[in-house]
Amino acid sequence: MEAHFTEWLNLGVRWIHMITGIAWIGASFYFVWLENNLNRSNPREGLSGDLWAIHGGGIYHLEKYKLAPPKMPENLHWFKWEAYFTWLSGVALLLVVYYLNPSLYLVKPGVDLAPAAAIAIGLGSMAASYLIYHVLCDSPLGKRPALLGAVLFVLIIAAAYGFSQIFSGRAAYIHVGAIIGTIMVGNVFFTIMPAQRALVKAIETNTTPDPLLPAKGLLRSRHNNYFTLPVLFIMISNHFPSTYGSQYNWLILAGIAILAVLVRHYFNTRHDSSKYVWTLPAAALGMICLAYVTSPANRAPAAAPVAAVEQPAASETLSKVEEVASSQPDAQENPAPATGGAATAADFGKVESVIHERCTVCHSATPSSPMFSAAPAGLMLDTPEQMQAQAAKIHAQSVASQIMPLGNITQMTQDERDLIGNWIAKGAPTN
Fold first, then answer.
1. What separation in angstroms does the CA of 30 have from each of 16, 19, 192, 225, 335?
2. Whole-number Å distance between alpha carbons of 200 and 217
3. Contact 251, 300 (CB under 8 A)
4. Are residues 363 and 261 in the same domain?
5. Residue-number span of the structural domain to which 173 is assigned
């Protein structure tokens, strides 16, 4: 029953995170579009532009003041809670999915790192990332946006590489998303909102506003806009093991981030000219190239993270699984320990035994693992027919990317993965 409630807790927090994230990113996209599409020809006095729009059966007239209206309105909407709740729900999700069971979901197999230390690294990296970012933005680099962007990109990818050395691939990706999200919400809380409050106060008191604060707010807002697409990818990345499950997952993330920034730059500049239209086909070609280089045929075998281990019996395996506290994240990758050369036989009887011992603890109509009340993703491997029908997924998860079994908690060996791979290569026969 505990696994059932944990699953619903996971679902609830994810849903809140998605809803608030859509609200935050949607507002960001809308105001960038609005700014880029204002009619600035002959605006009436005091305005920098206006825009007429139709939506939902109504016609809207939006105006942007050069500074502010002669009299401030009684009700002025501030866009901030979308950002705050997105970050808070994201941290809650990090806690539910990874920090409640760090030894299983957070720490990379074979890495000698205490769970408490891993959590401290995760939380500390979020705080440190914002402090470093803030210092860089206030340094002379802040006056050179392109160079500052390049430096930030290098630092973020360096963090991705560092995370990939100690965290599981999926946890590494999520923590990159966490530090970017922390930077974004920090921009809203520490820079953008204070600049807006100072502007409103100056108007109300009829004083000259400090021009430095709006300039800083604009820079940080622009950064947040370019961060959105990489963060969106990271939010959905746990469904795509060919990215986070790769030996070079940090490089794949770097490539996708570059492509995402190119796409965002096109949409940010298309109102002005079409000189960046090339970024869209370039991004599409880049995705095709990433799909090719990450295919199983082109992927180098992952290095074994730990030395050979003794094969546990089925009863020992189940006992070990039952010691793990309940949690319910999506599929997670963890490389398997090496145990020697590849198996030469693809006898289905052996394959079936391996799958029953290593996989059906979770992927069954009646999972014996306390972590799941139902088979993850609805994938069941109880019968030969089910094993044959799911052969492609078994190969992708357990042979190609080696992200399953979850946390390699059932200690699937490299020989067993090779055995399954050979069986699938021969057409996954069951007789």
1. 21, 16, 17, 11, 42
2. 14
3. no
4. no
5. 80-293
Quick check: is 2 in a domain?
A: no
Q: Which of 240, 258, 293 lies at the terminal end of a domain, its last residue?
A: 293
β-pair type (47-55, 58-65): antiparallel
159 with 125, same domain: the answer is yes
Q: 406: closest CA among 352, 357, 359, 373?
A: 359
Residue 238: other Cβ atoms inside 10 A: 20
Select from 385, 392, 365 the least CA-distant residue to 376: 365
* pTM, full prediction: 0.78
Question: What whole-number distance in Å separates Cα of residue 180 and Cα of residue 200?
Answer: 29
Q: pLDDT tens, 229-246?
A: 999 999 999 888 889 888
Q: Is residue 48 classed as helix, strand or coil in its secondary structure?
A: strand
- Looking at the domain assignment, is residue 11 inside a domain? no
Axis-axis angle for helices 348-358, 414-425 (nearest 10): 130
Gap between the Cα atoms of 156 and 254, Å rounded: 9
User: Can you name the residues that pair with 61 across neighbouring β-strands?
Assistant: 52
- Residue 330, amino acid: D
Residue 118 structure tokens: 């891993």
pLDDT tens per residue, range 136-190: 999 999 999 999 999 999 999 999 999 999 999 999 999 999 999 999 999 999 9
